[in-house]
Amino acid sequence: MNKNVEYDLIIVGGGPAGAYTGKIASKLGLETLIVEKRQEIGSPVRCAEGVGKKIEEYVNVAEEALAKDVKGARIYSPSNNYIDMLEEDAGAEVGYILNRKVFDQKLVEEAIKAGADVKLKTRASEFEQTEDGIRVKLVNNGASITLESKILIGADGVESLVGKKMDIYNNLKLNEIESCAQFLMTGINGIDLDYTHFYVGNEVAPGGYAWIFPKGDKKANVGIGILPNGTDKSAYHYLKKFVEQREYLKNAKILEEIYGGVPVASPLEEAVDDNVMLVGDSARQSDPLTGGGILNAIKAGKIAGEVAKEAIESNNCKKDFLKRYDERRLEEIGQKNERNYDAKELFQKLSDEELNSLISSLEEVSFESLSVTELVSELIKTNPWLSDEIDGFID
Amino acid sequence: MIEVDSEMCGHCGACVGVCPENALDLVGYNIKVVGECISCGNCEEVCPVNAITRD
């Protein structure tokens, strides 16, 4: 190894994507550094904290990291009729509501136990390709240090600089991002908090939806995501209106305010360059239909960690080799995201009347799993005109 | 040019993601203008709390 190269892998970002990539890579014996610009892992939370139980195929969700195990989802039409989806199998897409701060810290702890180094309050500001890898300028507590790594992982979220500075992609367009606002509220009364609740409609949340994700003990994440190009008003405006209009939130108080941007883009064809791979929100891997990002970030992190190991072993960290990551993540995450992107594009065009009729068409359906895939498949079966617009939901 | 009201800002970084010029950065908990703004208005539109205004 060239003596100037200090690490096999420098990972920018200490969220689930970065931490899990770091854990896998360290376990495989790579010298790994995770840098996080914030002064603590997992805070501020920028997430509704829901995740499917499939997460347990990858991560052991500790008791302290689990806020609520929900038993179903209730989906409301604009006219306030609803359908219930009950969880009857383990493949639920939203089954757990997490305490993200605890969850994220546990993931980083696991990466550390596997051998990774972690630096907080450290911002990666400049990147320069060299003969052997990438030189990364880090600003730690105001002081600059430069480190060299064979591979750089951009796990730096929706605000990713790695992706843009390495010219892997341009900015997100205004139809590729949900603008989100959320209150963690306490003292909620008169709604079943064993369920998650979803509200759709152009009045409630243009281009998105509103959600109630219970966290136990009369608490819940009450949030909203809107497409910014569909309205002049802010997500915060729509959230305030939503809260005011719900009887069950009348006496509830706000414990936390959370804001965020969630990529709802079609999958990147390329998320790699010479000596660089992108994972998680920075690679726009969140599900374009639900906005859920944790499970995809973890899946991508596993693939990225494994490909990094293979590349370093083969002494080739160039793009032609790292393309393996693209191939695997497109198969494991991309195909479904592509399909869900098409569904998102379709649902955004529907009027409230159409949404009302679609939801009422499902009133007699009993669902076998708590999954968006099943919801959309049932919608297409019951309303065949939808199938012209979106492919791939019914096998 | 744009102005970010740091009292209103929710520190989420959505504006950084939509900026076509790398003119914004989420430094720690603060949104900073670090490059040349072309006044495209993307950041203003995406901001969940209306903390960004264009001159």
Automatic annotation (TrEMBL), chain A:
Pathway(s) where this gene product acts: Membrane lipid metabolism; glycerophospholipid metabolism
Binding site for FAD: 17, 36, 47-48, 50, 100, 124, 281, 293-294
Domain Digeranylgeranylglycerophospholipid reductase catalytic span(s) in chain numbering: 177-262
GO biological process, one term: membrane lipid biosynthetic process
Residues holding a 2,3-bis-O-(geranylgeranyl)-sn-glycerol 1-phospholipid: 336, 372
Superkingdom in the source lineage: Archaea
Keyword field: FAD, Flavoprotein, Lipid biosynthesis, Lipid metabolism, Oxidoreductase, Phospholipid biosynthesis, Phospholipid metabolism
One GO molecular-function entry: FAD binding
Cellular component aspect of the GO annotation: membrane
Pfam families: FAD_binding_3, GGR_cat
Cofactor stoichiometry and binding remark: Binds 1 FAD per subunit.
Cofactor dependence: FAD
Catalytically driven reaction(s): a 2,3-bis-O-phytanyl-sn-glycerol 1-phospholipid + 8 A = a 2,3-bis-O-(geranylgeranyl)-sn-glycerol 1-phospholipid + 8 AH2; archaetidylserine + 8 AH2 = 2,3-bis-O-phytanyl-sn-glycero-3-phospho-L-serine + 8 A; 2,3-bis-O-(phytanyl)-sn-glycerol 1-phosphate + 8 A = 2,3-bis-O-(geranylgeranyl)-sn-glycerol 1-phosphate + 8 AH2; CDP-2,3-bis-O-(geranylgeranyl)-sn-glycerol + 8 AH2 = CDP-2,3-bis-O-(phytanyl)-sn-glycerol + 8 A
HAMAP family linked: DGGGPL_reductase (MF_01287)
Family listed: Belongs to the geranylgeranyl reductase family. DGGGPL reductase subfamily.
Note: Reduction reaction proceeds via syn addition of hydrogen for double bonds.
Role played: Is involved in the reduction of 2,3-digeranylgeranylglycerophospholipids (unsaturated archaeols) into 2,3-diphytanylglycerophospholipids (saturated archaeols) in the biosynthesis of archaeal membrane lipids. Catalyzes the formation of archaetidic acid (2,3-di-O-phytanyl-sn-glyceryl phosphate) from 2,3-di-O-geranylgeranylglyceryl phosphate (DGGGP) via the hydrogenation of each double bond of the isoprenoid chains.
Protein name: Digeranylgeranylglycerophospholipid reductase
The species this protein was found in: Methanohalarchaeum thermophilum
From TrEMBL, chain B:
Taxonomic superkingdom: Archaea
Residues covered by the 4Fe-4S ferredoxin-type domain: 1-29, 36-55
4Fe-4S found in the keyword field: yes
Pfam family, one: Fer4_10
UniProt GO MF annotations: 4 iron, 4 sulfur cluster binding; metal ion binding; oxidoreductase activity
Keyword set includes Coiled coil: no
Keywords: 4Fe-4S, Iron, Iron-sulfur, Metal-binding
Protein name in the entry: Ferredoxin
